[in-house]
Amino acid sequence: VVFAFKMTSNIRESYYKLVYRFPAKMDVDQSLITEADNFISKLDDCRIDSRILFKDRLVTLSENTGKEVGELTISIDSSTYSGKECYLVQANSNGIVDTIPVGTNITAYVTPKLESLEHTQHEYVNIPGNPLTKRSVLSQTDDGYQLVLTTTEGGTETVTTEEFTKDEMARFISEGANLVLQRLSIILGVHSRMSFNVFSTDNALANVSYSPIESHSVLLQNVTLETIGIERCVDNKDENPTTWKIYFLSDGHMYTRAQVGSPVYMKIKDIPENFMKDEDADWVFPDFGKGKLHWEDDIEMLSHFLDRKEELKEDHVNYMKRHPELKAILGDFLQFLLMRKPSDVIEFAADFFSSYSATAEMKPSFAHSNFVNQSAIRSE
């Protein structure tokens, strides 16, 4: 998922124009293309793989501070499009990068063989005084594909339309199809290097490669899990490649995702509820119980507590200053309470404050406390 726009004016201008029609020539190894074709050929054109139908939620963390600055959600479901069975991919990323709100929303209909029937992508960067938005709709036509790109910078909107032939879009993987491909690679155990075509940052067709990277064990909720790594690299023409390192759990759930050079990265917080180890179908989460939390000994938690305490105290004081009548009402109540000394304080309070209600039933004031006091006098 694209997370932010390039900010300089000359790059922004090229970002919204479709300058290059064909993939950048980066001396792609033919064997990578062959592996990609072999991978696609193994997919059943008429069957959705139910094993990848689930939702991932990752938090976005700052590389420098480790604080949460956003989130990434990815869901893949089964659906139909124009009578064709397909995957429905929905992805949403949002957060704060360098104090600027940024985000991307994707909705895509993808066939079992990873063809994009329709792909909608909306990106925004809320720069104060000069917000940037981009909405692209890629749809399949009889002759190939049509891309409609709507961009807005400040108050100026620009719409461009581009047509692509089927040959130009051979082995094309949209951002939505990319999410399906990654999960299928993990589920099917495909760890070979492959090369496809994709739109680069300036919407030019470019090569994208998928390569296995070293896997490692991680500790999550006191459970040791094995991860499987994939490196995705887009060859941008005349720019440095854009590279992501993504790690998955054995059942296809995304564990972490990081773009090389980005100030943020994504990571899951908890083990997915429907996660299942391959080697043990009866595997369940261990019960570690709940121990006593000694938060007073934790400097960070204690600091948070004291900050919150002062914040609430200040908020309450300010509220009472804005409502001086509150002090008068409470003073009257306490004074009258001590004068009557009722045995049932709750009933007395209900009688007292009901006199302030415009809808309360008319009855003798403080009847309950009067009854109590008269009974007490007779007993004496």
Can you give a write-up of this model?
The chain is α+β, with helices and mostly antiparallel strands and 380 residues long. The protein is 25% helix and 36% strand. The chain has a 15-stranded antiparallel β-sheet that branches.
Short description:
With 380 residues, the protein is of the alpha+beta class. The chain is 25% helix and 36% strand. Mean pLDDT is 83; it is low at 1-26, 278-285 and 375-380.
Question: Which properties best describe this structure?
Answer:
380 residues, 15-stranded antiparallel beta sheet, alpha+beta, 25% helix
Question: Secondary-structure map with pairings?
Answer:
Layout: H1 9-15, H2 30-41, E1 55-62, E2 68-81, E3 84-97, E4 100-110, E5 116-125, E6 132-140, E7 144-153, E8 156-165, H3 175-188, E9 194-199, E10 205-213, E11 217-220, E12 223-234, E13 242-249, E14 254-259, E15 264-267, H4 299-322, H5 325-340, H6 345-354, H7 367-379
Antiparallel strand pairs: 1-2, 1-15, 2-3, 3-4, 4-5, 5-6, 6-7, 7-8, 9-10, 10-12, 11-12, 12-13, 13-14, 14-15
The poorly predicted ranges are 1-26, 278-285, 375-380
The average pLDDT is 83
Order of helices and strands: HHEEEEEEEEHEEEEEEEHHHH
Class from secondary-structure proportions: alpha+beta
Q: Could you describe the largest sheet, including whether it forms a barrel?
A: 15 strands, antiparallel
The helical percent reads 25-40%
Please count the helical segments. Answer: 7
Shape by Cα distribution: elongated
How much strand content do the residues show? Answer: 35-45%
How many DSSP-defined strands?
Answer: 15
Termini gap: 82 Å
State Rg: 31 Å
